[in-house]
Every structure is written in structure tokens, then in C-alpha cells.
Amino acid sequence: MQLLLVNGPNLNLLGLREPSIYGPQTLESIELLLQKKADEEGISLQSFQSNSEGVIVDRIQQALGKVDGILINAGAYTHTSVALRDALLSTGIPYVELHLSNTYAREEFRQKSLLADCAVGIVCGFGAMSYVLAFDGILAHLNSDT
Ligand code: DQA
Predict the structure, then answer these.
(1) Is 9 helix (H, G, I), strand (E, B) or coil?
(2) Of 124, 134, 102, nearest to 4 (Cα)?
(3) Pocket test for ligand 1, best of 78, 102, 104 (most atoms within 8 A of CB)
(4) Rounded to a whole number, what is the distance in angstroms from the first to the last CA of the chain?
(5) Separation of 133 CA from ligand 1 center, angstroms?
(6) Which pLDDT score, from 0 to 100, does residue 68 have?
(7) What is the mean pLDDT of residues 100-110?
(8) Average pLDDT over residues 94-100
(9) How many CB atoms lie within 10 A of CB 113?
(10) Do residues 102 and 79 make contact, with C-beta atoms less than 8 angstroms apart?
């Protein structure tokens, strides 16, 4: 099984960036945590981060036919990007939307997601643990399909 973890804009600054909202962990430490879990489960996991919308669209398109499931924290693009939504839907790859913070308890503009209604599920508000829960969620979903 092949999974792809996608992180969007400003998530490369985790650890430094508003730690009271996003927590103290760096993106690298979160990616390592998930890699360890993937290794334990015998799953191939690729991790990708970009601040650029088009680059993320390209990466999602490249996953077509190669990846079984996507975990995506699209950062601010969650709330704005029709292009990311279209890319995800174009591949038909099941995905889980995730966020470190509880976006529904924050500013109104964060309470809208252009990705959520087509996701297998959404995880938000658990800090770095959101990634672990999303990983377990996509795995349970993919294993129940087979
Ligand atoms: C975020 C929430 C988004 O609203 C914000 O723009 C981010 C991070 C989160 O993980 O909580 O960049 O996706």
C-alpha cells in the first residue's frame, strides 16, 4: 500500500509558527513519526510539502495510479483552493483532510473547507496527533475496501 502525505503553505514553519495554536513539533518530527508508523505497518509513505498551490496540484496529479490514499493538510489552501479540490477529485484517490488546530473553533474564514465534503473523513484539533489519527483513518478505510 502506498500513501502520500501532503502539507501545504507555512507548514514548513511548524515548531516556530504560532506554537500556541499549532504546537511545538516541527514538520520533520511529524513526518518521522508517521514514517515510523508506516514502517511498522509495512506501508510505503511519501511526504511532501510546498508553499505553492500549483506545485501541490502537480504532486497530487503525479500520484494518479501510484498512490492508494492521501493525507492532506492543505493549510490555508483548504479554505480557498478550487484547484486543489479539482486535483484531488481528478485523481479519484481517497483522501483524509487534516488540521493541527480545530478550524471550526477559529475565525469564520477557516470554518469553510473546499476539500471536506469529498474527503473520506476529517481530523482536526489534535495537534500532531491529527496526523496519526488521519493515518489510522485512511488505513482503516482502505483496508475495509479490500
Ligand atoms: C491549518 C489550519 C489552517 O486554517 C491554516 O491556514 C494552516 C494550518 C492547521 O493545521 O490547523 O496553515 O491547516
Answers:
(1) coil
(2) 134
(3) 78
(4) 11
(5) 16
(6) 98
(7) 97
(8) 98
(9) 20
(10) no
